[in-house]
Specification:
There is one protein chain. The chain has 234 residues and is of the alpha/beta class. The chain has one domain (4-227): 3-Layer(aba) Sandwich (Rossmann fold). The chain is built from 6 helices and 10 strands. Strands 6-7-8-3-9-10 form a 6-stranded mixed beta sheet, sandwiched between helices. A 4-stranded antiparallel beta sheet has the order 2-1-4-5, covered by helices on one side. A hairpin with a 2-residue loop joins strand 9 (214-219) and strand 10 (222-227). Helix 3 (104-114) crosses helix 4 (119-132), helix 3 (104-114) runs parallel beside helix 5 (148-160) and helix 5 packs parallel to helix 6 (178-195). The chain binds adenosine-5'-triphosphate and magnesium ion. Adenosine-5'-triphosphate binds at residues 13-14, 20, 22, 40, 42-48.
């Protein structure tokens, strides 16, 4: 299958007496165009899993494939992990982490510009995405002039601008009220379908959990899959 596939993934932090086995054999699959929820108690390994998949930290064992290509198989299979992160993975965090002295357009266009794309092309693509996310009218504003929900939509545009096949979102709706939280999920769902992106959303948010069609629970370093309610997003 294309998309994301994780098999038998393990992560041990540290060694000896103080070692922590954060992931003890995680299995997960997400198809292109699909948004799945990942839920579990604090300390269960959710962020660890996203960091492994995002090549921010190195797993201890197991296998991960992206778009049918093994990126990790008992060791990294990709030499340039920075390029992997830049070109194939988009991150959305709980806080938007926008750069305060760049306007909204340049916050979104920055990564492709740094990657060597012509500035005009990067800004054009940024503005298209901002339009699609209903913040096009704020394209020239500075981040401090935006509401929390608008800032989070800009952060989503930034994650999508390189059209990565994978988006990893860690508590993307935590600071938002329920209307805006559902709005963020609606947008991720639409973007997944439009760009064939595989999206994993880590959440504690009771408001959005019923919207997932498929959910993974993580408990004590292991994942359990279940069908979600898939409540219509309207
Ligand atoms: N850098 C680290 N060094 C050692 N242990 C760590 C490190 N990062 C996380 N852990 C431990 O690994 C386990 C999983 O942590 P992780 O951050 O993945 O949990 P989480 O599910 O994201 O929790 P939360 O919902 O609180 O964000 C926890 O026991 C945590 O203390
Ligand atoms: Mg976490």
């Amino acid at each position: 299958m294309e998309g994301i596939r994780i098999e038998g993934l393990r992560k041990r932090y540290g060694s000896g007496d103080t070692a922590v086995d954060a992931l003890k054999g995680v299995d997960m699959a997400v198809a292109p165009g699909e948004v799945v929820g990942l839920i579990g108690p604090s300390g269960s390994g959710k962020s660890t899993l996203l960091k492994c998949l995002g090549a921010v930290i190195e797993p201890s064992a197991g296998r991960m494939t992206l778009g049918g290509e093994a990126i990790y198989d008992e060791g990294w299979k990709i030499r340039d992990l920075r390029a992997l992160r830049r070109d194939r993975i988009g991150f959305v965090f709980q806080a938007p982490y926008l750069i305060p002295f760049l306007d909204v357009t340049d916050n979104v266009a920055l990564l492709p510009m740094l990657a060597g794309r012509p500035n005009a092309e990067a800004r054009k693509r940024a503005r298209e995405l901002l339009e699609a996310l209903d913040v096009g009218h704020r394209a020239r504003a500075m981040p401090s002039q935006l509401s929390g929900g608008e800032q989070q939509r800009v952060a989503i545009a930034r994650a999508l601008v390189s059209r990565p096949p994978v988006i990893l979102a860690d508590e993307p709706t935590a600071p938002l009220d329920s209307e805006r939280a559902l709005g963020v999920i609606r947008i991720l769902d639409r973007m997944a379908q439009e760009y064939d992106t595989a999206i994993i959303v880590v959440t504690h948010d009771e408001k959005i959990i019923p919207t997932f069609r498929r959910l993974y629970h993580i408990r004590d370093g292991r994942t359990y899959e279940e069908a979600g309610e898939g409540r219509a997003l309207g």
